[in-house]
């Protein structure tokens, strides 16, 4: 059995894990990234909000990512629930808060491929395409055991190994999980009309139906609906599915064609009360899972990484180890409120669509009407949606005008 020593070990080679490894290595910490790449294309995209764009700029990877991304200049919400309190469509424009775009939409596989290419050429970073099967921690640090019996010693282990995180389970961090009576169909579409950099979200009685711009006359689809309906849709051929999507969208982008593989995403949630254990920090879906609504999941994961990076750098500057309790306590304090608020907002929106109760419809409709007609309120909500104003990690600062 061989043992290698690092300052920081990141487990999980998705977008969050790759960004964490890049961030720590660029700050001079001897870092290892453990995990195999998954670049399968399943029709899923990610809308990188403005704070995430600034974070990726700080890592030096944004220029390459931007080549395959489309800006989201306008967000349009249409109430298609059939409610008695249905408000008129509402549009939110990035220019109102001094931004060119709220964010940029890119295929998830392309994002991972670009981050992986940057990681291969990064100093202070070793890549180990293996699986972590064991984790132990004591006062001196943490030990990872890999599938090939290699042992890795590190002051801090970053668990970016997803919703079924093995490291979280081994460390004994409890997770609360829940599910919704829905699934989401995802795919890539071509269409006859220009999207004009507008993301359009239809609120239906079974969940949001969202079309998000991609470069050219292309968009990504996230269609949240009942499990019975998603199973029916998944059995359709491409032509029939495209027609069903066009009808659900009211033909506002014209005729559609399916241009990529499909995905079927379960609607589930996960939260933890602790974001750390001894010498271990949880980031991304190891700490929180959202249904694909509101572009919160990966953007929160990047905020996890940027916040953890600040805590580690501050600890290092004061002579403490990256995995010290003081460092990880700072990380916990920086993430708890942000994640709780986003979890409640996404969960609340989805559940109000499903209830069909008149009071819930009234509150949702009144809220959207207020946002449409009260400019200062609308701008506050838009800024908060792009990036919270309090406790912004340093690599994401300076992105939203006052």
From TrEMBL:
Keyword Calcium (UniProt): no
GO biological process: ubiquinone biosynthetic process
Cofactor(s) named in the record: FAD
Domain spans labelled FAD-binding: 7-335
Pathway annotation: Cofactor biosynthesis; ubiquinone biosynthesis
Gene3D superfamilies documented for this protein: FAD/NAD(P)-binding domain
Keyword entries, A-Z: FAD, Flavoprotein, Monooxygenase, Oxidoreductase
Pfam families: FAD_binding_3
Gene Ontology MF: a single term: FAD binding
UniProt cross-references to PANTHER family, sorted A to Z: UBIQUINONE BIOSYNTHESIS MONOOXYGENASE COQ6, MITOCHONDRIAL
Protein family membership: Belongs to the UbiH/COQ6 family.
UniProt protein name: UbiH/UbiF family hydroxylase
Protein's organism: Microvirga aerilata
């Amino acid at each position: 059995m061989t043992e290698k020593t690092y300052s920081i070990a990141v487990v999980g080679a998705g977008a969050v894990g790759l960004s964490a490894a890049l961030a720590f290595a660029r700050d001079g910490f001897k870092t290892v990234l453990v995990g195999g790449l998954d670049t399968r294309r399943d029709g899923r995209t990610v809308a990188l909000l403005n704070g995430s764009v600034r974070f990726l700029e700080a890592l030096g990877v944004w220029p390459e990512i931007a080549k395959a991304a489309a800006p989201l200049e306008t967000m349009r919400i249409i109430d298609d629930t059939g409610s008695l309190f249905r408000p008129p469509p509402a549009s939110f424009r990035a220019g109102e808060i001094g931004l060119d775009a709220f964010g940029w939409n890119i295929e998830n596989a392309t994002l991972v491929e670009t981050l992986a290419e940057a990681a291969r050429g990064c100093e202070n970073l070793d890549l180990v395409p293996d699986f972590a099967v064991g984790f132990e921690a004591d006062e001196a640090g943490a030990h990872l055991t890999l599938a090939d019996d290699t042992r890795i010693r590190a002051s801090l282990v970053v668990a970016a190994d997803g919703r079924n995180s093995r490291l979280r389970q081994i460390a004994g961090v409890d997770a609360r999980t829940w599910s919704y009576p829905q699934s989401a169909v995802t795919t890539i579409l071509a269409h006859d009309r220009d999207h004009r950099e507008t993301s359009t979200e239809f609120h239906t009685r079974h969940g949001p139906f969202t079309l998000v711009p991609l470069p050219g006359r292309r968009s990504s689809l996230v269609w949240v609906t009942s499990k019975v309906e998603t199973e029916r849709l998944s059995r359709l051929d491409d032509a029939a599915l495209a027609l069903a999507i066009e009808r659900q969208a009211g033909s506002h982008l014209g005729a559609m064609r399916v241009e990529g593989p499909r995905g079927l995403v379960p609607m589930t949630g996960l939260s933890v009360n602790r974001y750390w254990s001894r010498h271990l920090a949880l980031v991304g879906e190891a700490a929180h899972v959202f249904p694909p609504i509101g572009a919160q999941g990966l953007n929160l994961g990047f905020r996890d990484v940027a916040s953890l990076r600040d805590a580690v750098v501050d600890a290092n500057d004061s002579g403490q180890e990256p995995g010290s309790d003081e460092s990880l306590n700072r990380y916990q304090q920086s993430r708890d409120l942000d994640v709780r608020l986003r979890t409640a907002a996404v969960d609340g929106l989805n559940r109000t669509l499903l209830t069909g109760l008149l009071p819930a419809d009234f509150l949702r409709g009144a809220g959207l009407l207020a946002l449409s007609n009260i400019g200062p309120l609308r701008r506050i909500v838009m800024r908060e949606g792009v990036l919270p104003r309090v406790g912004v990690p340093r690599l994401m600062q300076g992105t939203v005008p006052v």
